[in-house]
Design a protein that fits this description.
heterodimer, A: Rossmann fold, 3 domains, 14 helices, 22 strands, B: Rossmann fold, two-stranded antiparallel ribbon, oxidoreductase (chain B), Oxoisoval_DH_suAlpha_N_dom (chain B), branched-chain 2-oxo acid dehydrogenase activity (chain B), thiamine pyrophosphate (chain B)
């Protein structure tokens, strides 16, 4: 039985497009997922993949044809063993009896969102020499480099100077920059955050280290009601260039009040930028960008990640732009989206899935505000399945938001509902066994991925 | 268990009079004008504790300027007349905006009645570049620094002439050029930020000082205490003002103060020199502010100033004070009316008269009404030209990200 290959809708609102290029010719055998053609709309060029296996029996619309309506048959696919002539015959008959539902698609809203274009590309030139470095060292280098470059940058927080940092991120900075720029504070998050916000309003560029982001709860009014909104509320007169950084999320055995992941909390706030790196290279490049940014930036680190080593570009100065995800692993069967420490479980899960013949594409969001929707959508349109992974709670999670966006902008591409793998909906227990159960694991990710692949 | 021990109990401050009872300020001592000494600005805090418990007063009941603070101040007649003009302008502006709120030209207003001297006088100690972190009852800082009242009205109306583009509540003005940061709708946050701003100024080698403002009730917020910690620890060039107007909406000032000592005395717990000043005495406020500003500019550190005054009107247009205090309480306030006191002083000096005062009041009111007409020609809360939604997405970030640009375009702009 032959089937028609129809002109695809690359967005829910696309009505017609140009068949720019055929990548197959009549007589070619194609497999599921193979790219057949390039389709152009007024917003983007997208590759178009085969859904079914078979042989291209006939190309109905030659390349270069503009104004091809969505759902118009553009080629005929013959099943194995079927002759091309039979295929064309059998495909044409039902097509005449039941015309493609063009009208239904054309009734979609006229305001089409831009078709996603992946912005995921290398952050440094190919061939750049690399060096091995821990996340801790990367963060320290980022601060030191930016403090050398701009004397308005200073670090303040509890134990950052004399003690060299509660987690030794600021080791050596007091010696190099002196007590004027590496400042120990009294134990009042509310106080020193207000101080730093005020100093930033006055034109300095403070880096505020929270011993953990749990302690920043005290200071959240300054972060949200003042830092994030001042530029807006002063009519653009005065802003707040500041970085709030420190470990976020669960460490180990620190219980309910010291294990929270604030990713979704801060990502909700307009006026803030929110960064949550996974690798050392990203930690360095993104922290440098954060320090240079004229807006308030919440930079969420992770205690467990501090000691992990990664390859980092050996460059005098490199930064990574906000709003640009990184594709860690390409795959065609399912898209796994994560960020921060969630990437550890996700990459581990991708390995396990590969062993079972499932090719997962793994995306690290890196920044949550701005968020790189386009890279996620492009991947989901390719794999048709998505699992999000994060450590935080399931309600109001980053994954919830991504699910909504995918539903709005790629609904027709989904072959299964998006699954959000998150921490359990409980305050973090202290006991090790319960703590382990409360957190997302790579096995949770594997189970979710198999579920959306119906395996 | 000790059978002799009394049962534990808590004590909570309460006002001395409530509606239906007679106003009672009998336990409110009013020190004699001119009696408070004026120590050199570099005096250590511990050697001037008396200034936190007494009160700096210059103008006496006969309108005479008395004592060492008056002598050191030496404000000439022209400057005093200008001060009177500022207070009259603020009072006329308040009266017109209160009416405008009642006519639904704006949703909300907060007036200064009885407190005009504090912000109008304090501004005289500042220089261009200095920055106030005010509360909602220091609009005199703007008027005394020459900010146009027509622009203030546009802010209150949220019309197309509002430099804040209709984003803030009425009276939450902002003008960097006039040293008026903005006003936080959340109590207290501005206090510690003023200290941080001043530390930033010192760290970057600038000459500007900061002034923090807070009300008696908000001193209970942690921002107040944190501000004092930092101001003290780093000897920050900041003036820490507390406006004690007796009432935090319906909460009497004793609740935050704990019925002991004074608000000024809180500075001494941190080794910060503190002045308690008659806030209804224009000359005393200028004198105290200049003393504190000199300390800040000479790197001698912060000064805490408690301005003692009385909120003669409601907290805001949403408040009815007759529900929680005797309606005639303001009339028996022992420190009098700030406008009348400076007026009487200038008349006693022979440079002013009741006739000229009445004439000035009429002229100022006419000017305010003219400005109001022009502001209302642009628009009011429900009528005329309002800020364009095209600008709604500006200033969320320093540079507009694409998603906001798209939202703006989807909104039709």
């Amino acid at each position: 039985m032959a089937t028609d290959i129809l002109m695809p809708a690359l967005s829910p609102t696309m009505e017609e497009g140009t068949l720019a290029k055929w990548l197959v010719k009549e007589g070619d055998t194609v497999t599921s997922g193979q790219i057949l053609a390039e389709i152009e709309t007024d917003k983007a060029t997208m590759e178009f993949e085969a859904v079914d296996e078979g042989t291209i029996a006939k190309i109905l619309v030659p390349e270069g044809t503009a104004g091809v309506k969505v759902n118009t048959p553009i080629a005929v696919l013959a099943e194995d063993g079927e002759s091309a002539a039979d295929a064309v015959q059998s495909a044409a008959a039902p097509a005449a009896a039941a015309p493609a539902p063009v009208a239904a698609v054309a009734a979609a809203p006229a305001e089409a969102p831009a078709a996603p274009v992946s912005k995921a590309s290398a952050d440094w030139p190919e061939g750049t020499p690399m060096k091995t470095m821990t996340v801790r060292e990367a963060l320290r280098e980022a601060m030191a480099e930016e403090m050398r470059a701009d004397e308005n940058v200073y670090l303040m927080g509890e134990e950052v100077a004399e003690y060299q940092g509660a987690y030794k991120i600021s080791q050596g900075l007091l010696d190099e920059f002196g007590e004027k720029r590496v400042i120990d504070t009294p134990i009042t998050e509310y106080g020193f955050t207000g101080i730093a916000v005020g100093a930033a309003m006055g034109g300095l560029r403070p880096i505020v280290e929270f011993m953990t982001f749990n302690f920043a709860m005290q200071a959240v009014d300054h972060i949200i009601n003042s830092a994030a909104k001042t530029l807006y509320m002063s009519g653009g007169q005065m802003g707040c260039p500041i970085v709030f950084r420190g470990p976020n999320g669960a460490a180990a055995r620190v219980g309910a009040q010291h294990s929270q992941d604030y990713a979704a909390w801060y990502a909700m706030i307009p006026g803030l930028k929110v960064v949550m790196p996974y690798s050392a290279a990203d930690a360095k490049g993104l922290l440098k960008t954060a320090i240079r940014d004229p807006n308030p930036v919440v930079f969420l680190e992770n205690e467990i990640m501090y000691g992990r080593s990664f390859e980092v570009p050996d460059l005098e100065d490199f930064t990574i732009p906000f709003g640009k995800a990184r594709i860690w692993r390409e795959g065609t069967d399912v898209t796994l989206v994560s960020f921060g420490i969630g990437m550890s479980h996700t990459l581990e899960a991708a390995e396990k899935l590969a062993a079972e013949g499932i090719a997962a594409e793994v995306i690290d969001l890196r920044t949550l505000r701005p968020l790189d929707y386009d890279t996620v959508l492009a991947s989901v349109m390719k794999t048709n399945r998505c699992v999000t992974v994060e450590e935080g709670w399931p309600v109001g999670a980053i994954g919830n938001h991504l699910s909504a966006v995918i539903m709005e902008r790629a609904f027709d591409y989904l072959d299964a509902p998006v699954i959000n793998v998150t921490g359990k909906d409980v305050p973090m227990p202290y006991a090790a066994n319960l703590e382990k159960l409360a957190l997302a694991t790579s096995d949770d990710v594997v189970a979710a991925a198999k579920s959306v692949c119906y395996r | 268990m000790d059978p002799a021990a009394p049962p534990l109990r808590l004590t909570f401050g309460a006002p001395h009079a409530r509606p239906g009872t007679a106003p009672d300020f009998s336990d409110f001592p009013v020190p004699e004008a001119g009696a408070m000494r004026r120590p050199p600005v570099d005096t250590p805090a511990e050697e001037m504790r008396d200034l936190a418990f007494g009160m700096i007063r210059i103008l006496d009941d006969a309108g005479e300027a008395r004592g060492p603070w008056a002598e050191a101040l030496a404000l000439d007649d022209a400057a005093q007349l200008e001060g009177l003009r500022h207070m009259l302008t603020l009072r006329a502006y308040d009266a017109r905006m209160l009416l405008a709120q009642r006519q639904q030209k704006t949703s909300f207003y907060m007036q200064h009645l009885g407190e005009e001297a504090i912000s109008c006088a304090f501004q005289r100690a500042l220089r261009p570049g200095d920055m106030n972190f005010p509360t909602y009852r220091q609009a005199g800082l703007l008027i005394a620094s020459g900010y146009p009242i027509g622009t203030m009205m546009c802010q209150v109306y949220g019309n197309d002439g509002d430099p804040g583009r209709g984003r803030q509540l009425p009276v939450l003005y902002s003008s960097k050029a006039h040293g008026f940061f903005s006003i936080s709708g959340n109590l207290g946050t501005q206090y510690i930020q003023a200290v941080g701003w001043a530390m930033g100024s010192a760290l970057s080698g600038a000459e500007a000082i900061a002034a923090a403002w807070i009300g008696d009730g908000s001193t209970a917020e942690s921002d107040f205490h944190a501000a004092l910690v930092f101001a003290s620890s780093y000897r920050v060039p900041v003036i820490l003002n507390i406006v004690n107007n007796q009432w935090a909406i319906s909460t009497y000032q004793e609740v935050a103060r704990g019925s002991v000592g004074t608000f000024a005395a809180r500075g001494h717990g941190f080794g910060i020199p503190a002045l308690r000043v008659d806030g209804n005495d224009y000359l005393a406020v200028v004198a105290a502010a200049r003393w504190a500003a000199e300390r800040a500019r000479r790197n001698l550190g912060p000064t805490l100033i408690e301005h003692v005054t009385y909120r003669a009107a409601g907290h805001s247009t949403s408040d009815d004070p007759s529900a929680y205090r005797p309606s005639d309480e303001g009339a028996s306030w022992p420190l009098g009316d700030p406008v009348a006191r400076l007026r009487d002083h200038l008349i006693a000096r022979g440079v002013w008269s009741a006739e000229r005062h009445a004439q000035a009041e009429a002229e100022i009111l006419a000017g305010v009404i003219e400005a109001q007409k022009q502001a209302e020609a642009i628009g009011t809360l429900h009528q005329g030209r309002r800020p364009s939604p095209a600008e709604m997405f500006d200033d969320v970030y320093a540079e507009m990200p694409p998603h906001l640009r798209r939202q703006r375009q989807q909104a039709g702009f």
